[in-house]
Amino acid sequence: MKEKLEKIMNDAVEKINISAKLEELNDIRVAFLGKKGELTSILKSMKDVAPEDRPKVGQLVNEARAKIEGVLEEKKTALASAAREAQMKAETIDVTLPAKKPMMGHRHPNTIALEEIERIFIGMGYEVVEGPEVEYDYYNFEALNIPANHPAKDEQDTFYINSNIVLRTQTSSTQVHEMEKGKVPIRMIAPGRVFRSDEVDATHSPSFHQVEGLVIDKDVTFADLKGTLAEFAKQVFGEDTKVKFRPHHFPFTEPSAEMDVSCFKCGGKGCRFCKGEGWIEILGCGMVHPHVLEMSGIDPEEYVGFAFGVGLERIALLKYEIDDMRLLYENDTRFLKQF
């Protein structure tokens, strides 16, 4: 029995010593010390040993177990230490190397232009109001005095979801929602994304942004509109900027006008930027049509107002002298980080 125990112990120690992985040590522990291990089998066969020899055999089994466990623990410690050392070498960091500089985000030219526009009008006492991009036909057209047979309602210009719902073609619909609340006076701008069925080119896109303004109050005149937009143009394009109003037609305003600003590159003398005209078309505006006020529940005999709308991309293109609208949406960081 003693020779058998010594053989088991020597076999166990030899296997432990040649083990190269911690997983192998666990297999050895199970094979020799587990419930079905070789030492356990000897303990189970103690019934076949003479009663007077059982204490001695039990002592030998315990000594062999202690020996195997001791060698196992030493080997486990050695393998764990070696694995840790190898890991440290593999994951060594040279703290003297320069750190990787994270790529920081950058505001888009549209965002920069919009924040400037909002700052200007908030400074004049305006409120910034947002509205839904998916809009009812009524708010997008009819409430703005655009009847059913108007060319603007042609499917070639507008994205229709069904006969009653469209992707808004202008943020003027937000103004209608505000007027219907009946809280006058109103001083607001409505920035947001709009959609029109246009081909993509240097100056057109099926999705772009507008900033529309609305003022409703008593005793508002076209002079108030002119003064407001003249101040806006000076703050955006420079103190020396002049404005010019040309008669135009919009269904929702009467009288209506297109506003030009003097070329901020040549001072109105004429150059390549303004195509030799000295003026640059910038926005449309006018006095709110009385019928639009009536449809929104505002008495046109008591209240009047003016409205204007400017393309956000147009402001960005002019302000930063960008010659192709598509550059704004290509997400090329080489272009965007210039602003």
Q: Which descriptors apply to this entry?
A:
single chain; 339 residues; 2 domains; two-stranded antiparallel ribbon
Describe this structure as you would to a colleague.
The chain folds into two domains: 2-90; 109-336, BirA Bifunctional Protein, domain 2, CATH 3.30.930.10. Helix content is 40%, strand content 19%. The protein has helices spanning 2-18, 22-33, 38-44, 54-90, 109-123, 137-140, 172-180, 222-237, 290-295, 312-319, 333-336; strands at residues 127-128, 134-136, 165-167, 186-195, 207-217, 243-250, 253-262, 279-288, 304-311. The protein starts with a helix and ends with a helix.
Summary of the model, kept short:
Its EC number is 6.1.1.20. Mg(2+) binds at residue 254. The chain has 339 residues and is of the alpha+beta class.
CATH architecture assignment name of the largest domain: 2-Layer Sandwich
Helix fraction bin: 25-40%
Question: Major sheet, described briefly?
Answer: 7 strands, mixed
Strand order of the largest sheet: 1-4-5-9-8-7-6
CATH C-level category of the largest domain: Alpha Beta
Query: Can you count the beta strands?
Result: 9
| Rounded radius of gyration (Å) | 41 Å
pLDDT averaged residue by residue? 86
In the CATH scheme, what's the topology name of the largest domain? Answer: BirA Bifunctional Protein, domain 2
The DSSP helix count reads 11
User: Which class of secondary structure composition applies to the elements?
Assistant: alpha+beta
Secondary-structure element order, N to C: HHHHHEEHEHEEHEEEHEHH
Shape: elongated
Q: Which regions contain 5 or more consecutive residues with pLDDT less than 50?
A: none
CATH homologous superfamily annotation of the largest domain: Bira Bifunctional Protein, Domain 2
The first-to-last residue Cα distance is 89 Å
